[in-house]
Amino acid sequence: MEININCDLGESSKFHSTENDPSLLKIVNSANIACGYHAGDKPTMEKTVKISKENNVSIGAHPSFDDPENFGRKRLNLPSGEIRKLIIDQINTLSNICTKLDMQVTHVKPHGALNNMACEDYDLAKLISESILDVNKELIFLVPTGSQMEKVGKKLGMKIAAEIFADRNYEDDGNLVSRSKSNAMITDPEVAKKHVIKMVRDQALNCYSGKQIPCEFDSICVHGDGANAVGTAKEIKKGLIKSGIILKSLNKLKKFI
Length: 257
Hints:
The chain is of the alpha/beta class. Helices cover 38% and strands 18% of the residues. The protein has one domain (2-256): Alpha-Beta Barrel (TIM Barrel). The two termini are 15 Å apart.
């Protein structure tokens, strides 16, 4: 069985340091790089792409609302034209940097509130999907399993990679527990590893209540902003390899070759 480990990186801001990024890029297979709207800037993008290249890590754009004051985590209701523009602009910004460094953007994963809203809203999911297709029909769309983005992307014939979260708890409806709740995050690397291995073994989401929701997935996300992010990523990687899982970057998964 093949699985990808992805991580949100290059998120330099007043909320988040990138000090763990070099270590994480030695562990994960794919990087979702902030494109300057919720976090990051061109020097940070360049640095993150260079380290990704050194470690054979595939590159993804991580577009968000243009809201650095809230790290892209505040829900905003914007006109469709504005959302389309921000998606396209962020992908192109990172793509231009990658081209100069002899790399390429191979996937897109929305960030924060934009991602959460599109998980629930079919029309927003369709708008984001169509915006990505307008840039490059070969881009892989990395989305939460069971989300509206997964449904729309498949309907539009996109390359879809579904993900689960290693360090987040799930509600019984399959959505992530809100970060406003104390049980949103899984901070113990050992607990996170068991959480992931169980989901891989059962091919199901583990809800906080104990309920399981059958699903299919290709990738496991480890958040780079956690205090134990590096330890969590290491434990998960060790656990997956011990379980006989083959780890690959998104664009090297058999389904996309």
